[in-house]
Design a protein that fits this description.
The protein has 9 helices and 7 strands. The protein is α+β, with helices and mostly antiparallel strands. The radius of gyration is 16 Å and the shape is globular.
Amino acid sequence: MRKIQRLAAIGAMTALTAVVGACSNSQAPATGNEASAPATESTTPSTEATAPTGSGVTKISDIFGPACDQVPKEGPGSAQGMVNDPVATAASHNPLLTTLTKAVTAANLVDTLNSAPELTVFAPADPAFQALEAQHPGILKELTTAPDVASPNSKLAKILTYHVVGKRYDAAGIVQAGTLDSLEGAKINIGGTAAAPTVNGATVLCGNIPTKNATVFVIGQVLSLPAS
């Protein structure tokens, strides 16, 4: 966990001040063909990402990143445990994503994410939310207990759907695309290389994680919504 906290701290502070105030219109999730990753792959992380698959569907052997060793080796929160679950359910078992899971539940987005045919999810690790809270004390409680928190137009829903793309990409695919349209409606900028991509400048801590309907990238920062 210390390794994730060090990586998360690098990018977290510079992009947090715009999280609460900036808003854009929501979009419904895009549709596509559902695909499941194989369930019997090696759990050893790769040192680099593979070429784009076209479908964006990854295998457990495609997982890469400097913090992948923080993912449990077995059980529901392991790579093998997540691969056959839809993305919100899969994330709920991962000990790196407890705060994100609580936020998704508060925003009433579990069914939306689980039922989408295909997604790419940029999932902030717990230390990223801790950095947000340190910069804006009380912000997480404010967002998760707002009267309209379960509305698609709530601030929390907009922040969370900005971390989701309605198409499935692997690491090479997001870098090749360069710019992605989030479910929230605003664009996400991808930099770096397939072996070390960045998401609006945020470090990918562990990427190419397959779930039943999504490819997940654990990132070290809560992304800020672009100014309206």
